[in-house]
Design goal:
The protein is about 75% helix and about 0% strand. The chain is mostly helical and about 120 residues long. It has one domain. Helix 1 packs antiparallel against helix 3 (about 45-60) and helix 4 packs antiparallel against helix 5. The longest helix has 26 residues, at about 1-25. The chain is elongated and about 45 Å long. One of its GO terms (cellular component) is membrane. InterPro entries: DoxX.
Length: about 120
């Protein structure tokens, strides 16, 4: 049981740091981060996208708002995946964080996926 809690906590911290750092890099317009948005004609949206990403991650990290954060992060990264695929990009860039978010959410609260059977 302690191992499961350690893994869940580690994944939660990893996801939080990864997504918040990604959002921060967009929000402060780091050149290489904004360059990735240029190929999708979205350089002017970097600040908004970064703030959204950080906000959704914070909601995901707070236990009472974890479900809302999970839904918003899932929508955000699914949209990023659709954008990547529509421009012949790689779905791995948004796919890896999305997979980590889903695994972390499952470990934190199985009822998100299993409903009443998750308890």
């Amino acid at each position: 049981m302690k191992t499961n809690k350690t893994i869940t906590t580690s994944l939660t911290v990893l996801v939080g740091i990864m997504v918040i750092a990604s959002g921060l890099m967009k929000a402060i317009h780091l050149p290489w981060s904004v360059a990735g948005l240029v190929k999708f004609n979205l350089p002017n949206s970097a600040t908004a996208l970064g703030l959204m990403e950080m906000s959704f991650a914070i909601l995901f990290l707070i236990p009472k708002t974890m479900r809302l954060g999970f839904i918003l992060l899932s929508c955000y990264f699914t949209g990023a995946m659709a954008t990547e695929l529509s421009h012949d990009g790689s779905m791995l860039n948004p796919g890896i964080p999305l997979a980590l978010i889903w695994v972390t959410a499952f470990l934190k609260d199985r009822s998100i996926f299993l409903g009443a059977f998750g308890h």
